[in-house]
Amino acid sequence: MVLSVAYHSQPALERLAHDLVHQSLLPLLWLVVDNSPDSAPLDAARLQPAGSQGERLDLELVSGQEGDGFGAGCNRGFDHLAQRGLRGWVWLLNPDTALPEGTELERLCQALDGQSARALVGTAVRDSDGRPEASGGWIDPGLDFRRRRLGPDQMNNVESLAVDWLSGCSLVLQPSAHTPPARFDPVFPLYYEDMDLCLRLARSGASVLWLPSPAVIHQRGAGSHTPSERRLGLSTLSYVLFLRRHRPGWVTLVRSLRLLFTSLLRLPLQPRRSVAVLRAMLAACR
Fold it and tell me: Which of 17, 25, 234, 249 is 20 to 30 A from residue 140's alpha carbon, by CA?
């Protein structure tokens, strides 16, 4: 099953629908959670193109809450699948991803064969120019805790790699295989919810694995449209909350102070962006 969370994402989803219906192995279900049901509701008819043999995707739209984040949308999708009694692997795919080769889903299923049901599995992600994106990595001690990320050197691997975190852009898991069922923490409104999930489930014994193949293409910026100040505020809130939950106190303090001083210095030149950051930092402390 494939799950995508959408926010003002109609054009990107139409392109993804075309790629999905032309896969050598069609998904059992494509579940799309619409997080802009009021401002930009999705047109389901345009998300069901015909394949080369006339086949169509088994598509379900779920109306989310206007403005909800990625994690809340995924949780809504997981709950919907549980209510329907559907279990098994769920591939989280961003609306702005592409599957150009046509065999990505089949190769992913082959790679998942024999994996523990409690595993979290991520795939390689490339940008529209074919360059590798940071689709996973390791958490190091100290201030530069995200320094080691997957890059070009790992793209030529033939084996999976154990990592600390995976990108939610292309992430596979079985929510019902975990106790309690795996869910994102909605306290993270934008970014870091995928890292938090990986770290939490790893502490309970789940393996976190990255696959060099298949690779998906991430057409960054084509999937949703959020005003820059709002996006910056939400991402700052997630960042500070992640620091407080997963990093030592001294790292949280130093990084928070650096963020605070930088925002204050930029306040005269970029007042709206600086205020968005400062408000988010205040909200994180409440």
Answer: 234
